[in-house]
Design a protein that fits this description.
There is one protein chain. The chain is of the alpha/beta class. It has 2 domains: 88 residues, Translation Initiation Factor IF3 (2-Layer Sandwich), CATH 3.30.110; 254 residues, Rossmann fold (3-Layer(aba) Sandwich). It contains 14 helices and 11 strands. A hairpin with a 2-residue loop joins strand 4 and strand 5.
Length: 363
């Protein structure tokens, strides 16, 4: 099906045509099942961007939730007039998933206390350290796939969907202390013995709160791209309220290093697009109210602080402050990474976590 260009029918109607086409394809998949290797090609002139990109991200997220592998590939090509043409494609791969090799595990889903999670090992080993991964605002546990998978040869790895996010049943919460209490209840319900929370941004704030509220229940903490106080730019609140699809589509541009390839960030944008706008707004408000600056000296457990060298949202000075005010804390700066270091430079982040666990736990 060819679509008439926006120069003939107007940008808004053009985007409605795209949305109708994507909805029809999704309906076909639900009604008659997937057709192997199907592809949907859509041309998006510059005036339809980021609205058109946001539609594609939303559709890809819906297809992924239906247990189909949905990917978006972008290519910039010469265009007519004064704009370039962005060529977007959703490729729905309906072939059986590849077998998991010895260096790649099938992540195991689970649910406890209404909280959904993925883990790297089918069987929990109580004699191994447990690292509990906590995602950032408007995201889900799938953000941590590379860590949950790659680190499972030496530790139990568990990445949760915070309440109100991803596949979790529980309602979203409105403060960092409330999220910390929910995560600690999850830890207790699972019977984990002194896990190490590892959090990004909002997740890092939750990890900090857990270290302060229940140090006896933990073995240490890993804080990535976060701070003891998190003030959110007013522009972010405005974008979420006024144009959430545009906000979701620009998440990578706002948060990542300019040296990070766009394809490394597609999954982050899809997760954000799939998160309800009111949940994302509540997350950022929780961050904006968070402040434990005066309490950092109370933390006596081993702590690793990680920050991307190009992080502009929680810059390196935030990490230096944490390291300076938490007794014995260690800092690792990740080159060529911004606020999303675990997906921008997963190998470097994973190696830093391995070293910390070896030094702290002895594995």
């Amino acid at each position: 099906m060819d679509l008439t260009g926006p120069e003939r029918i107007g940008t808004a109607e053009y985007l409605r045509d795209i949305e109708a086409r994507l909805e029809a394809v999704q309906h076909d998949h639900e009604a008659v099942g997937p057709r192997s290797g199907e592809q949907i090609g859509v041309s998006l002139p510059a005036e339809t961007f980021p609205g058109g990109k946001a539609l594609l991200l939303k559709s890809a997220a819906k297809l992924s939730q239906s247990h189909m592998a949905a990917r978006i590939g972008w290519q910039v090509a010469p265009g007519g007039g004064l704009h370039a043409i962005l060529l977007a494609e959703i490729a729905v791969d309906c072939q059986p998933p590849p077998k998991v090799g010895k260096d790649r595990r099938q992540l195991i889903p689970g649910r406890k206390n209404g909280i959904a999670f993925i883990r790297g090992r089918r069987k929990h080993r109580p004699d191994w350290p447990t690292v509990l991964f906590l995602h950032g605002s408007g995201l889900a546990g799938a953000f941590w796939r590379r860590q949950t998978d790659d680190l499972a040869d030496r530790m139990n790895t568990v990445a949760i969907d915070l309440p109100g996010h991803g596949q979790s049943d529980a309602a979203a919460l409105d403060s960092v202390p409330a999220y910390a209490a929910a995560v600690l209840a999850f830890v207790h319900a699972c019977g984990f013995s002194r896990p190490i929370p590892c959090g990004l941004s909002l997740g890092g704030a939750i990890a900090l709160q857990m270290l302060l509220d229940a140090p006896q229940a933990l073995a240490g903490g890993i804080l990535i791209g976060t701070g003891a106080r998190l003030r959110v730019r007013p522009k972010i609140f405005d974008l979420i309220a006024d144009d959430y699809p545009g906000f979701a589509a620009s998440t990578g541009d706002m948060a990542a290093s300019p040296r990070t390839p766009a394809e490394a960030l597609t999954g982050v944008e899809e997760l954000t697009a799939a998160c309800p706008p009111e949940v994302t707004m509540s997350d950022y408000r929780a961050c904006d109210r968070f402040d434990v600056m005066a309490r950092l000296p109370e933390i006596r457990l081993p702590v690793l602080v990680i920050c991307g060298a190009d992080d502009l949202l929680t810059p390196v000075k935030y990490s230096r402050h944490l390291t300076a005010h938490i007794a014995g804390a260690r800092q690792t700066i990740i080159p060529r990474a911004g606020h999303l270091a675990p997906v921008e430079q997963p190998a470097a982040v994973n190696e830093a976590i391995r070293r910390f666990i070896t030094r702290t736990i002895g594995r």
